[in-house]
Design goal:
Elements (H helix, E strand, L loop, with lengths): L9 H5 L8 E2 L5 E2 L10 E7 L2 E6 H7 L1 E6 L2 E8 L4 E6 L1 E2 L2 E2 L2 E7 L2 E6 L5 E3 L4 E4 L8 E3 L2 E4 H7 L4 E2 L7 H9 L13 H4 L15 E7 L2 E6 L8 E6 L2 E7 L6 E5 L10 E6 H7 L4 E3 L23 E2 L2
Parallel strand pairs: 1-5, 18-23
Antiparallel strand pairs: 2-16, 3-4, 3-15, 5-6, 6-7, 7-14, 8-9, 10-11, 11-12, 12-13, 17-18, 17-22, 19-20, 20-21, 23-24
Length: 314
């Protein structure tokens, strides 16, 4: 996929600096139950071999990258505040742990560099696009956005890792950055448009929030509005059924297999905005919801139907 480079990448990376300092987790986590947080405070939760850890999204809005170790396994979490995309990465190449931080924008989405070789990586796919590690890929896995209210109900034993950064800039970002899980308006800073390789896919509004699901060679975007809060959609994938649902408390969409195989992870997925997903996967399919089964004049160019809805492809 073609990309254009933001001015944010060059000077900082060439000088051996990150655009924003990463949060390297060293402090002991704090139980959620001991923290005085508002119910609508937004969290990002990761899981490694059955052990979960949470982070405040408003802290990720400043750091962009959090890195540490959970249950004996190294992890990195990258978060783009403009497209609201969070993704988990295993920061290991040839048995060596790399150390990551934010380092610019491509196609309107934040990219990261490792401070070991200053190679440039695309976090949505884990691919290295420039530098000594070009052509290599990191393991990518889904993270779970939610709210404090939902976590208290569903994960009462959750622990959070909090930043120890106390700079003025980080304080301003934490205090002023808007909510992202239900922020349908969004905002793309004007300089970000200069990083885009082409026009934004116009099948829907560029800032529409939804769930992007990667199914082998197929990439599907489920708009947030296509699934009611607390509801779900059953989707046939080959001989299997996948359920895409929205949480009753947080309203965040997730995908899971209806009958998972032994020790099987859920499908790779990310909560994101349409422009970011369609730039990364230009041939992606767009879920239109069950109401289109009766026909609305929307062209159907790929015969991949489901029990409750249909996809629209380019």
């Amino acid at each position: 996929m073609a990309t254009r480079r933001s001015w944010l990448v060059g000077p900082k990376r060439d000088a051996g600096k990150y655009t924003f300092p990463p949060h390297v987790v060293v402090a002991k986590p704090v139980p959620l139950a001991e923290l005085d947080l508002e119910d609508d405070e937004e969290l990002l939760i990761i899981e490694r071999d059955g052990v979960e850890r949470g982070f405040l999204i408003r802290e990720l809005a400043y750091h962009h990258v959090i890195q540490g170790e959970l249950n004996g396994r190294p992890y990195a979490v990258a978060f783009c505040v403009v497209c609201s995309t969070g993704v988990g990465l295993t920061p290991v190449v040839d048995g060596k742990v790399l150390h990551f931080g934010s380092n610019g924008v491509e196609n309107g989405v934040g990219v990261i560099s490792d401070g070991d070789t200053w190679s440039l990586w695309e976090p949505m796919t884990g691919e290295c696009t420039e530098g000594p590690h070009k052509g290599r890929s990191l393991e990518v896995w889904p993270v779970r956005p939610t709210t404090v209210a939902a976590a208290r109900r569903e994960r009462p034993g959750l622990e959070l890792s909090l930043t120890n950064c106390r700079s003025l800039t980080s304080w301003i970002v934490r205090k002023t950055w808007p909510r992202v899980l239900d922020n349908r308006r969004g905002f793309i800073p004007p300089p970000f448009f200069r990083t885009m390789a082409g026009r934004i896919d116009d099948r829907m509004h560029r800032l529409e929030l939804g769930l992007g699901v990667m199914l082998g060679g197929r990439h599907v975007f489920f708009p947030l509005e296509s699934i009611p809060k607390g509801g779900d959609a059953m989707v046939r994938v080959g001989s299997r059924m996948m359920k895409v649902y929205r949480g009753e408390v947080d309203g965040v969409p997730h995908a899971t297999w209806c009958e998972p195989w032994d020790d099987e992870d859920p499908p790779m997925q990310m909560f994101t905005r349409w422009y970011a997903f369609s730039f990364r996967y230009p041939e992606c399919e767009l879920w239109q919801g069950p109401e289109l089964e009766q026909g609305t004049g929307v062209p159907q160019t790929r015969a991949w139907l489901t029990s409750t809805g249909r996809f629209r492809s380019r």
